[in-house]
Amino acid sequence: MTVEIELLSRKESYAWNEIVGKSPDGTLFHLWDWLEILERHSKTRLSPVLVKRDGAPLGVIPLFFQKKGIIRMVFSPPPRGGLFYLGPVLVDEWKDRQDKREADYLDFHKAVEDYVATELRPDYTRISLPPGLTDPRPYGWSGYTVEPLYDYITDLTKGEDHLLSSLPKKQRQGVNRTIKKGVTIESGGKDALSAVLDLMEIRYEQQQKAVSMSRQYLMDIFDKFGDNMTILTAVYNGEIITGMIDLHYRSEVLSWIGNPKPRVTDGISPNALITWEGVRLACKGGFRSYVTLSAAGNERLHEYYSSKFEPKLATRFAVKKSSFTAGVLEKGYTCIVKPLKGKFQGAAGNGE
C-alpha cells in the first residue's frame, strides 16, 4: 500500500470541501474559503494537506506555518483567528469497524508527521483537534503533550419551552425583568457586526487588553459566511449596549464571539437575555445543539450563563510538541513576559 501527501490548490478546493462536508470531523472553519481568509490575516503560510492511500483519500489537514526569529512554528488553527479548533478531517469510510478506522487514522497521522518533519521542520507545533475527532492517542504516541478542553453542548431537541423552564428561577426573573425594562434584541448584518466589534474593543481597552482578531478579518469572514452567522444586539434606550455573533453549520449553532460586559447598571441582564434569544432562535431554526465554545474550563465551572440550560460537558483535545529551545521561550513568555506586560499596562491605565 502506498500512502502519499498532496498539497491542494484553489482549483482543487471542491475536492477539499467535499471531504470536509462528508466527514463528521469537518467544521465550518475547515472550508476552503475560511482557510484562505485565515491565512491572509494570520500572517502564516497555509499547507492544505491531502493524504491518500493507493489513490483514495484518507483525510485532509490545514497546517499553518510561521517563522519568528529562529523559531519555526506550525499551527492548526493559527493564532489571531478566533478559532478554538481545526486539525484533521478524516474520511469516515469504516463507520462500524473500529480496527479499520484506527488503521486509516494511523496511516494518515504518520504521513502528516513525516511531511511536517521533512518539509516544515517546526520547533513548535500546536494542533487543536475538532470535536468530532475524540481520539488523541496517535499524537501522544508521537511525543505530543495532550491537553483536554471542554465545551457546553445544549440539546435543542428538548424544545424552547423546556429550555426556558430549565433555567433557575433567578435567571428567568432576570430575563423577564430585562424585557420589562425595555431591552430589545435585534438581528442585523454588517452594521450590527461593526457595532459588536466596537463594544468589544472598548471593553478590551478597559481591561488593558488587545483584541486578537482584526476587524478586517471578521468583515472578510462576514462577506463569505454571512449566511452562516446570526448577529444579535441588545438595544436599550436607543443604544446598542451589547451583542454577540453565533455561527451555524450543519445541525449545530456555535456561540462564537461577543457578549462584552455592558456599561449599563440599571438592574438589567442584557447578556442573559441575548444568550437566551440566541438559544431560542436556534431552536426555532431547527438546529439540534447549541455549543458554547471553550466555556467550561477547569477553573471557571458554572460561571457561564449557558451552563444553566442543562448542557452536556463535551471533551475535545489540543496537542503540542516543542523543541527544548522553543519550550524555554514559551515558558519564559508565559511566566515572565506576559505577567510583566499586564502589570505595565495596568500601571499605565491607572496613571502611575
CATH topology of the largest domain: Aminopeptidase
Low-confidence spans: pLDDT under 50, at least 5 residues? 339-352
Q: Report the average pLDDT across residues.
A: 88
Shape: globular
End-to-end Cα distance, whole Å, is: 67 Å
Helix content: 25-40%
SSE pattern: EHHEEEEHEHEHHEHHEEEHEEH
Number of helices: 10
Main sheet, how many strands, which sense, barrel?
13 strands, mixed
Instruction: Give the second-level CATH assignment, the architecture of the largest domain.
Output: 3-Layer(aba) Sandwich
The count of β-strands is 13
- CATH superfamily of the largest domain, by name, is Gcn5-related N-acetyltransferase (GNAT)
| Structural class estimated from helices and strands | alpha+beta
Relevant terms:
alpha+beta, Aminopeptidase, 2 domains, 13-stranded mixed sheet, 39% helix, 28% strand
Helices and strands in order, then pairings?
Layout: E1 3-7, H1 13-22, H2 32-42, E2 45-53, E3 56-68, E4 71-76, E5 89-90, H3 98-120, E6 124-128, H4 137-141, E7 145-155, H5 160-166, H6 169-180, E8 184-188, H7 190-206, H8 215-225, E9 229-236, E10 239-249, E11 252-258, H9 270-284, E12 289-292, E13 312-322, H10 324-349
In short:
With about 350 residues, the chain is an alpha+beta fold. It contains 10 helices and 13 strands.
Give a description of the structure.
This protein has 352 residues and is an alpha+beta fold. The chain contains ten helices and 13 strands. The protein has helices at 13-22, 32-42, 98-120, 137-141, 160-166, 169-180, 190-206, 215-225, 270-284, 324-349, and strands spanning 3-7, 45-53, 56-68, 71-76, 89-90, 124-128, 145-155, 184-188, 229-236, 239-249, 252-258, 289-292, 312-322. Strands 1, 2, 3, 4, 5, 6, 7, 8, 9, 10, 11, 12 and 13 form a 13-stranded mixed β-sheet that branches. Helix 2 packs antiparallel against helix 8. The termini are far apart. The relative contact order is 0.14.
